[in-house]
């Protein structure tokens, strides 16, 4: 298939593109910068220049594709409304372009806010609706397009998709620990984060492209929930700083994504594994932290 990928040179996107190429697909990647374009070209990917605000490029990429993978996000935590608006506009452009074609559209989502006091499951609908909601309510916007003849699938990623070269949430937490000279957790540290290795996430996406039914909600989750206290202790040990519980006036130690680290984001992937015959085999998050990669590159 000819597959158009937003976020093709990003963390999850790069691993996914490698898996798509290995499976024999032809990939067209949206590239914002010269560096991103060069990295994609070196892999044999056709480049379409543009970003999430360039809706004409997104529309053209979707028009020419047999399937679309939307993996890009601005991740502007200072101005979330900017990220939410761009996400919603991009998803709306893709579903409008694919309407009536039954072509496949896989879009990235998350597990935050899906459940309280228990692991989220694939049966949990996203509570986020409308342009002002987190991610611009894009998961519901995409899945609602099934009734318009779009083979839409939501892939919900763990709060940490980890591995060598990760520059996401765990890398940001590591940088915060190094900056402040100490680290810790909110409350008693029993809230949990789900996790998945980036190679396992990429394999799930390729499997979903072939086998996920329209309207499916999939969970890219390998570990259901790791207590954040254990994550903080591993980060503290790796950076070489003291760790402990943080009071309400100390949460700046966690950095700009500290509010995420205080959330309980456990999630199950039992139904996804059964549906796609997907078995994660990559290292665990604590194994990746113990290997030292996050601390060598921080």
From TrEMBL:
Segments passing through the bilayer: none
NAD-dependent epimerase/dehydratase domain mapped to chain residues: 3-213
Gene Ontology cellular-component terms listed: cytoplasm
InterPro entries: Epimerase_deHydtase, NAD(P)-bd_dom_sf, NAD(P)-dependent_oxidoreduct
GO MF terms, alphabetically ordered: aldehyde dehydrogenase (NAD+) activity
PANTHER family in alphabetical order: NAD(P)-BINDING DOMAIN-CONTAINING PROTEIN-RELATED, PROTEIN YEEZ
Protein name in UniProt: Nucleoside-diphosphate-sugar epimerase
């Amino acid at each position: 298939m000819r597959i158009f990928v937003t976020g093709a040179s990003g963390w999850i996107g790069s691993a996914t593109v490698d898996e798509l190429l290995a499976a024999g697909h032809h990939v067209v990647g949206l590239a914002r910068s010269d560096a991103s374009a060069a990295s994609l070209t070196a892999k044999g990917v056709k480049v379409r220049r543009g970003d999430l605000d360039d809706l004409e490029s997104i529309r053209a990429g979707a028009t020419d594709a047999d399937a679309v993978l939307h993996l890009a996000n601005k991740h502007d935590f200072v101005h979330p409304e900017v990220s939410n608006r761009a996400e919603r506009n991009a998803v709306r452009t893709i579903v409008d372009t694919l309407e009536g074609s039954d072509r496949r559209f896989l879009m990235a989502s998350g597990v935050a806010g899906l459940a309280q006091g228990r692991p989220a499951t694939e049966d949990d609908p996203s509570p986020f609706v409308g342009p002002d909601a987190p991610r611009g309510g894009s998961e519901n916007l995409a899945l609602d397009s099934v009734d318009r003849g779009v083979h839409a699938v939501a892939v919900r990623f763990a709060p940490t998709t980890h591995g060598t070269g990760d520059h996401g949430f765990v890398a940001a937490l590591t940088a915060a620990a190094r900056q402040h000279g100490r680290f810790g957790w909110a409350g008693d540290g029993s809230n949990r984060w789900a996790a998945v290795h980036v190679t396992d996430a990429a394999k799930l996406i390729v499997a979903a492209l072939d086998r996920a039914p329209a309207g499916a909600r999939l969970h890219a989750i390998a570990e259901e929930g790791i207590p954040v206290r254990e994550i903080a202790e591993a980060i503290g040990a790796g950076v070489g700083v003291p760790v402990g519980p943080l009071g309400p006036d100390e949460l700046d130690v966690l950095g700009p994504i500290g509010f995420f680290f205080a959330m309980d984001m456990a999630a199950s992937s039992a139904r996804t594994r059964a549906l796609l015959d997907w078995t994660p085999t990559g290292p665990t998050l604590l194994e990746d932290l113990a290997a030292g990669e996050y601390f060598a590159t921080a």
